[in-house]
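For this section, I looked closely at a protein sequence along with its fold in token form, which I now present.
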Amino acid sequence: MNANSLFSFILYFLIYAILGWLCEVLFAWFKHHQWINRGFLIGPWCPIYGIGVVLLIVGLDFLKSNLVLLFLGSVLLTTIIEGLTGWILETLFHQRWWDYSKMPFNIHGYVCLLFSLIWGVAGVVMVDGVQPLIASWVARIPQSVLVIGVICLGCGFLVDFAMTVYRLIQVNHVTARLSGKLEELRLQVTESDLRALLKKELTARISDPLRAQRDDILNELSSNIKHFKHFKKAFPLAVPIRFTKAYELLKDYLDRKE
């Protein structure tokens, strides 16, 4: 692969990541009737779509002459990509970003038959219909413009990716600390009193040490809420695998602040 081809494929990745983000946002708009930045990252791109389509282009282009085989190959490859991505995100960040557990014919909630078939159809459309148009357009871009454009967009993507990973790590650290502090409080008050205490509805009969613990938790929430805000909006149905009570506290606190 020469340098020009490399930059072309990087641009393909970025284009499809942006198109994937746009599809997610439009789907969320029709479903929830509100604007939701559905990207894993802060910017307008969903890397799983960029990676998925580029792998389809590279791995299945030879099947374009047979649409049935192209469809079956797309189903298989996109299912592997979605399942592997879901597993990696859950393993690294202790949260399930999508969950097909209630869908028929699912595999551990990471993938399901319906969406695999949908991705299969989308794969055929991308490889046989959209990609030739995108490739034709990219081929007409002067090499110098292509290189500069890809470098600029790529740097923006990498900065966004680094910031997102940092925020996710911070969310994990915050929830781990909150989980420990909540357990300390839970040993001293009932569950209902704990919720009232954190909402400052229980004040008259609490001791100074208990009030100090409560204020410590609320300060932790207040100072770290920016790290959590984007992910709550982008993935409102995300399921935490660890520190469930702390995640619920973060969501409840954010809901009261909005």
The chain has a mean pLDDT of 82. The radius of gyration is 23 Å.
